[in-house]
Amino acid sequence: MSRTRIHNFSISLDGFATGEGQALETPFGHAGHRLHEWMFATSFAAEMFGRTGGTCGVDDAFARRFDPGIGAEIMGANKFGPPGWQDDADWKGWWGPDPPFHTPTFVLTHHPRASIEMEGGTTFHFLEAMPAEALEVAREAAGGQDVRIGGGPTVVRDFLAAGLVDHMHVVQVPIVLGRGVRLWDGLEGLDADYEIEAVSSPSGVTHLTFTRKSA
Ligand SMILES: NC(=O)c1ccc[n+]([C@@H]2O[C@H](COP(=O)([O-])OP(=O)(O)OC[C@H]3O[C@@H](n4cnc5c(N)ncnc54)[C@H](OP(=O)(O)O)[C@@H]3O)[C@@H](O)[C@H]2O)c1
Questions:
Q1: Tens digits of per-residue pLDDT, 65-106?
Q2: Does the CB atom of residue 151 touch ligand 1 within 6 A?
Q3: Closest residue CA from atom 4 of ligand 1
Q4: Residues 9-24: tens digit of each pLDDT
Q5: Is 77 in the pocket of ligand 1 (CB under 6 A)?
Q6: CB–CB of 54/197 below 8 Å?
Q7: Main-chain dihedrals φ then ψ at residue 181, nearest 5 degrees
Q8: Are 112 and 86 in contact, with CB atoms under 8 Å apart?
Q9: Please, are residues 184 and 213 in contact by the beta-carbon 8 Å criterion?
């Protein structure tokens, strides 16, 4: 059974998954890279960015769950590019010629364009569809494997609100951002639908896993 999963989704103590003022030079707005420092320190990230070294502890173990069993990703337009990318015919995402997805990757946008084939197995497809419809398309492309919802917070929130997420890994980072885009707004009572576990890491972050309760 193909599941819908979220991994390494990092939020501040006050629930923001990105800061205010996203731009080409600041993909996470005023948050800078503070939401993902825990991940950049891991050997998983080192391998991803062609470096050596990195930690091999709790954070690394969680970070590595990003890839296995995933056959497609769905992401939002604001994860794919800064405001206005839709006007740039050459924009191919932040990640260079070989993005870290390595699967069909569906970008939800009200400004669809032709698909872009990248190196390493990532093909970006642009889709204007409701979450359930988008999931159906991504599932088909995933060939029986799981579908990852990659963010940002608006898209994650929409999939959670629609009851479409089977497993979610949220990383609570001990910073207070104060402004940006929040994950939890409008999701009152969401916890009732999930088995929730928490693991504290020596790095200071808390890994929270939400696994949908079986019916
Ligand atoms: N903390 C983390 O772990 C994490 C992970 C991923 C991303 N991020 C960050 O999150 C930020 C982006 O998040 P966000 O909440 O601003 O935006 P987002 O979720 O990436 O994208 C929202 C946008 O996607 C399009 N969209 C969403 N649903 C759609 C649908 N059903 N049909 C068609 N288009 C649809 C709309 O854009 P249009 O109307 O313009 O097409 C909408 O404004 C970035 O700063 C990114 O770096 C953080």
A1: 999 999 999 999 999 999 999 999 999 999 999 999 999 999
A2: yes
A3: 152
A4: 999 999 999 999 999 9
A5: yes
A6: no
A7: -115, 125
A8: no
A9: no
